[in-house]
Amino acid sequence: MGDTLEKSSEEPEISLDNECLMKMGDLVEVSSGEKVKFDDTGLSLVLQNGLENLRLENSLTDVILCVDSREFSCHRVVLAAASNYFRAMFCNDLREKYEEKIILKGVDAETMNILLDYTYTSKMLITKQNVQKVLEAASLFQFLRMVDACASFLTEALQPENCVGILRLADAHSLHSLKQQVQNYIIQNFTQVLNYEEFLELPADILCSTLKSDDLYVTEEAQVFETVMNWVRYKESERFPLLPYVLENVRLPLLDPWYFVETVEADQLIRQCPDVFPLLQEARMYHLSGNEVSKKANGVTPDTSPS
């Protein structure tokens, strides 16, 4: 009996050869003929498939998510591992930690099903039709990798007709990288984006940050001025007080002097807004200065004799 116990306590030898191990995973380190360090890279997939099967069989589930009229049986540990939102819900002393059924708001059942399929399988189908809802839900429930996937999809889908909507979506969900990429797209394709009414829905701060860019693609500064005035007139009663704020992003001194006098100074909204007069005066001084320089360059001396 003693001999038997002594032998069973010895560390068993591993007889798997290297070729067999490599078929199963990565052979991390061979220290001797008796010990190996082995990383089974396929185990994570086995676990994932196993958890998905348990969900489909409704086995060992311990929470029901209620969305609209549908119920989704899930495992708290899986949700908490995939989402910071559910981690906070189930790992802190919140009411939901002890409830069997949890009612979720801010998402529809179809979108929630996409999120759960992704959680258990790591796969999802993003389309132009569902990307906004999926992004909003993933942002709400903090499925961060899903948010990144949606943002990448939207970046690839940028067009003049949809870029403003994508920009507003990125801004609403604090997706700074996506927002910057969309702004760069608008800056580089400004004259095309202007053709769509959606551009006039831009918030003032985003409009100004776009207009002030040195890389803004326009053929002439008059386009920028007309953009500002169209934007103000689109919601005139609401935006008229913002006119000085947005107009300062137009390089008025770079406008053709004739256009400045005939169009800018003659505009009724401009004339009704005293707060923009300093901007106009600065442009006038620049134009006068430019005319004097031009005259001197051509050998013309201003007439300073008394009349």
Automatic annotation (TrEMBL):
The keyword Repeat appears for this protein: yes
Pfam families: BACK, BTB
Oxidoreductase listed as a keyword: no
CDD domains: BACK_KLHL6, BTB_POZ_KLHL6
BTB domain residues: 61-128
Organism of this sequence: Bubo bubo
Protein name (database record): BTB domain-containing protein
UniProt cross-references to InterPro entries, sorted A to Z: BACK, BTB/POZ_dom, BTB_POZ_KLHL6, SKP1/BTB/POZ_sf
Residue spans crossing the bilayer: none
One of the GO biological process terms: B cell receptor signaling pathway
Gene3D superfamilies hit by this protein: 1.25.40.420, Potassium Channel Kv1.1, Chain A
PANTHER family assigned: KELCH PROTEIN, KELCH-LIKE PROTEIN 6
